[in-house]
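re the bet — no i am not wrong, look at it urself. input seq straight from the record:
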Amino acid sequence: MEKATYFRLERLSAWSGYLLLVAFYVAFACAGILSPISPTMGQQGIHDFLVHHHTGILVGTVIIVLAVPFEYPYVVVTSLQLRRIEGGWGLISMLQLLSGVVAPVGFFFPMAILSAAAFRPGQHSLDVLSAMSDIFWLMLVGNACIQVLQVWSIAFGALIDKRPKPVFPRWYGWLNVVLGVLFIPGAFVFLTKTGPFAWNGLLAYLIPNLAYLVWKLSTPIVLLRAIKGEAAEEVAEQAEPVASGGASVP
């Protein structure tokens, strides 16, 4: 593959991070789930919610299904940049790659479950609809914890890079350390229905959601800078042999 094509594909993969961010929020807005329902909502309330948002939930799921595949080039290009730090495929780049490949499942499967509940809510009992709604919210919010190792692998790679022109800036490494910590409270949604650790709580939902927003906004920026630096290194490496070959011998 020509290097120009290679770097073009890397840049497109980095931009896909913004595509994912927009698609996810549009899908959740269509489904009426940008603001979670209360974990204490009664069965009739859940039924009414599913009926009222029937079309939006189904459309939102379609958007998620179409958008999720773009997570993979985004994850791969991130690991390709981490690979530069390690000098080849290593623990950090592979850990980011594997955890990044798994993470989209945490969006698709919960939305598929919610769609199954909304598909024909009139033909299911209130007990079934309530259980499916619970599964959706517990999976969606609890999934945030899966991304802890992903962001921490990026952080570690950024912080151990000692080259004069690092692949990722150190501030981005420390940002990922903090973001990983902020994702952790999502794991506690399984323990309570009220308070900051509930699926609509400050620590389990709002703060991890904001952390995800910051991560998706900042990562494409540093990826595009890293790709630009990689391209510059490639040009410099190609120029060195030419310069050496053209030097005159006294």
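see?? Residues 3-232 form one domain. told u. also The chain has a mean pLDDT of 91. so pay up
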